[in-house]
């Protein structure tokens, strides 16, 4: 028996048991409302999506072509439209996630107004946005199911049993818009207890995967800015454990932790690691400090010194009090960070790089996999990269290495439009197109994300509309550039009243008030102009 029919029959039994108390309750309407609201809490979502993500990780281990992807969303509506588009164009939400960027919360959702990505925004805005994203995805479920229910009613009214059976099959096998989210907790917003408390709220809001980075919480910088300061491994591992405890406390035993290292671009540390014996993790961290050997007579007032290998060494200390790492150690520190995190509770790693280069990423992942064979990477396909220039330069370098003639190209000016139709530019675009596939196959990248794409799409589309609407095009700028495209490309959002829930509300009024319901979707509703 179909799950839809089972739900109706269960309601019929409940109504009969309650007699007149439930008079006027339609068992099928109640079943519809329940199906339209499958997830009652964010914690249910976290448990459901954690299972999906774990299966996806196993699928990737078996076949690297089974990588996953996401786009960063800064509003529930953006997330909703993204997943509606995914189902429309690709038929399934499988292997597609949401990403919640701390950068976009800081820039777009803080009560302070736009802020840089330095953990200055309210930390409670993170779980609030997670809750908002899933509220909109659940509403997308309700809307799509509502259309299926109306198709079922129409098929029944027409006596078309075959069509009714087909629609009921779609209802029984409905794929939800609710997908996993990887949520950014920055550097934990304080000490490990603060990290634990925030992680709990994020999980309760629906997060099955939490990303945390190894920067100092109160010195936190965007991964693509200068001035990043890392913490010793023991400090970072304490926060990883705090997140795991939060998952376990809430019953999300398979919750996912993504450990991000910023060491490739971070040349500073705020503190010297505690070490108890040569070669322990603290000693390995301190080994990368830029130091000079001393004799007792060379020490100055207030100097900090380390006893290492039988000698006294003085770490280079900046006027800010920060200590400096040796130049050229970033990659080695990244590898150590990742291995240490994976051996101490993290499930996935994230290496913040300065450019998108499969070879560079793959070299680090291969070193990590020598110790942790199933290491998997989450990679930021960042808008902070100049993708066009980077890949044209990579194509140029490959041509030079192959002995090809590059005399007609200037490597430093490859962004110039004059190169757009050149063989080099075409080759570079193919490399960009294949970057995610190549990265998954050659660099251990399980999940590809773009942190803030919808920040840029909102800016670009608004710029295009404003340019025309306030210029000569006037209303044609909207009609031609927006509405006509919505209609012809089949965007459900062209019926914005329906997208906002007006028709769902009408259904509820009918359930509650019957023929007396005052509904909005009558013949005078202008949305009818869109068919």
TrEMBL record:
Catalytic activity: D-threo-isocitrate = glyoxylate + succinate
Gene3D superfamilies: Phosphoenolpyruvate-binding domains
GO molecular function, one term: isocitrate lyase activity
Superkingdom of origin: Bacteria
Biological processes annotated in GO: carboxylic acid metabolic process
Cofactor field: Mg(2+)
Pfam families documented for this protein: ICL
Keyword match Cell inner membrane: no
Catalytic residue positions: 222
InterPro entries: ICL/PEPM (IPR039556), Isocitrate_lyase (IPR006254), Pyrv/PenolPyrv_kinase-like_dom (IPR015813), Pyrv_kinase-like_dom_sf (IPR040442)
Cofactor note: Can also use Mn(2+) ion.
Record: residues binding Mg(2+): 184
Name of the protein in question: Isocitrate lyase
Organism (species): Arenicella xantha
Binding-site residues, substrate: 101-103, 223-224, 260, 380-384, 451
Entry-linked NCBIfam families: PRK06498.1
